[in-house]
Every structure is written in structure tokens, then in C-alpha cells.
Amino acid sequence: MRGIPLCMESSPPQAQSSEGQQWWSTRAGFLTTRPGTCPSETYDPRIKDDQRLPDEVVSFIKYHPMMYKAVYPVTGKPLFTRINVDYRLTRIAVDRVVAEDGQYAVMFVGTDVGTVLKVMSITQENWVTEEVVLEELQVFQTPSPIVNMAISSKQQQLYVGSRDGLAQVSLHRCSLYGQVCAECCLARDPYCAWDGIECSRYIQASKRRARRQDIKHGDPSSQCWDLEETAGGDRAEEKLIFGVEHNSTFLECISKSQQAQVRWFLQRPGSEHREEVKPDERVIGTDLGLLIRAVHRRDGGLYYCTAQEHTFTRTLLRVTLRVIDHAHAEPRDPATEARQRYKDYLRLTGGPALGVDRYCETLWLRDRRQRQKTKWKHAQELKKIRNRRHHAQSGATLT
User: Fold this and answer.
1) 295-340 tens-digit pLDDT
2) Residue 105 in 3-state DSSP?
3) How far apart are the first and last CA of the chain?
4) pTM: predicted TM-score of the whole model, two decimal places
5) Where are the domains of the chain?
6) For a surface tag, which of 19, 129, 243, 257 has the fewest beta carbons within 10 Å of its beta carbon?
7) Domain covering 236-331 in this structure, CATH number
8) Annotated region Disordered: where (predicted)?
9) What span, in angstroms and rounded, lies between the C-alpha atoms of 46 and 362?
10) What Cα–Cα distance (Å) separates residue 262 from each residue in 258, 294, 318, 371?
């Protein structure tokens, strides 16, 4: 098993007055001149660059090679963990954000595949820490390790650097959290709050106004008044999808919240009862939706895509699936069938199926143009041969 921990640690180094003497804990010069820290106003505004560091600072690690005791995470466990992932953490930048119910440390963690994780560790009343993943951003299109990150609190921007270039990312994208109070509250992003109309940037002010935010618990029941309307699915998007019997069909549904558990329910025609869709070899649940590998007649009906967080459940999408008899569908050639199976695989793995379609269309168009160009060249060659013959015959007649 492969895992990645992210910890917050604190431990004083050891010191020894002379060789053979007992080691003891020391903090002399440790808090103000930590080894490996670049000069800044945080430590000493008089020191502008590394060349002006005192000798005792430069040689600090030489005389303090060991820690006084074993280094453990301050919270007793890692703040953030990832298990069985295909990337490594490379850089971290932390922003202190003031919210309605306190101050939070939002961590932006870079990886070696060009992504940035926006995570947070929340300590509850019983000192139990909760890991919250707010966003996972694909900053660079090509997998390029992130080598540097810097936060500008004034500009509210995160600057991300790699070998391929520099990117600028906003610290908050509140509009992604939906258009209802519950979704904004459940996102638990300290940068954002519900202002009565939309999920927007939270700005601390003396007047509370209509700002709704609950970062610690993410409980919309204490913040929002339209819960019954939101949970009932009155604002949920509705779709109509046709599926051919014995063929595959994909029902797309993506939750805006990283913490939500998505569940599917099916209401069959003529019934008022909803039964939960249980994944198996034929019906596969993914992060992007529900893949039905072979549609049966009994699969037709009204599908409800729901998101559950804590004790709150809301309907994200309603999809009506109508199954068409296989005998009424037009037959498809093996090449088309193979393309469809490959698109199903991409949907299952979260790949860019739409991008593949455009890519294939580009290849087919290029191949068609190439054939037309070759055909045109062949026609031109035949025309030249006919012209030569005509001129040759005309010359013979004149002589």
C-alpha cells in the first residue's frame, strides 16, 4: 500500500556544551533563526539576503545535529493523507483565513503531476481532527511537477510554477458551489459564504447581514431557510435520455462538494416507490455518474441522483431513461461498436470522451482530405498525359 501523509510537527533540537557532556533541550536562537528559512521581515527585517546571516545562524545545524526527542505530529496524526495514488506531494503553501466561526489554515498542496489540492484540517470540540478536501485543481495540462508556489493575500491569488511555466489561480471560486444556500454551506470553504442570493466571497464585517457560513460543522439546517425546497429536488436539473436495449448508457451526475456521497435511486413507471440502485458487474458507479453496460427493459424509469453529507440529503439530478427495443434500432458496423465500447471505457475511468470524439473526427477529416488530395493529383496526372498525347497527334498531322 502506498500512502502520502502531511503533518504539522514541532520539537526542539538538542545541544551539548562540550564533547562527552550530556545533551539537553534548547531553543536558543531556534525560533528566530530556523535553518533553511529565507531571510524575511518575519525573523529579522535588518537581514535582506543570505550573505548577511550571522555565523551562528549558518552553523546552527552543525552544533545541533539531533532533535531532543522523537518528532510526532502536533495533532497526533497527519493532517492530510492520500492512499494508493499515482502522484507525490512536492510543495505546500498555507493561507490563514478568517471565517464566521474562527480562523482556519487552508493548505494548497502541489503534486508531481501538475495538480493542486486545496485541503483543510478542522478540529472539533472533542479535539478530533477532520480532513476536508475543498478542491483538486488541474493547473497544467501536461503532467509537470510543481516546483514552487506562493500566495498573494492582497491579490487573492495563488502563483504556481513548474518547469513548463507559471500559472495564476484564484484562492477561491465560490460560484462553483451552486446556486442555493445548502450547497454553499456544505462546501465548507472559509473563503465563501451565502449572501442571500449566491455563494460569494466572504468578507469579515461588523454587520452580519445575510452571510451564512458554517465551516466547522457544515450544517445547512442552522443556516439556510430553503432546505425543504432544496432537499426535495424542486430545483434539480431534469434530463431525458434514450438507451438502446443491450447497449451501454451513461447517466452523468457530478457533485460540487468533495465530501458528498452520491447515491442513485430508481422510480419505475407506475410506481411511487424509489429503490436504491446497487452497483454490480452490469451497473457501475463512478465519480462522474452511473454506467449501465447493458441496458435491460427493466432499467427504464426515473433516476434520482442524490448527494448525502452528514444528515443532509439533496437531489442533484433527475434523469428519465427510456429504453428502445433493440429490433427498432439501426444496426451498427463493428468499427462503430468498438468506438462506442472505447468511449464507455473512458467514461468509466474519467477520461475525456468528448475530446476523443473530436480527436477521431479530426483524424477522419484529415484522412478524407488526404484521399481527396491524392485523387485530385491522380486526375491532374491523367489530364497532363491526355494533353501530351493530343499535342503529339497534332504535331504528326502537321508534318
Assistant:
1) 999 999 999 999 887 777 888 889 999 998 876 666 656 666 666 6
2) strand
3) 92
4) 0.60
5) 3-26+64-170, 174-230, 236-331, 352-399
6) 19
7) 2.60.40.10
8) 1-21
9) 61
10) 10, 22, 13, 49
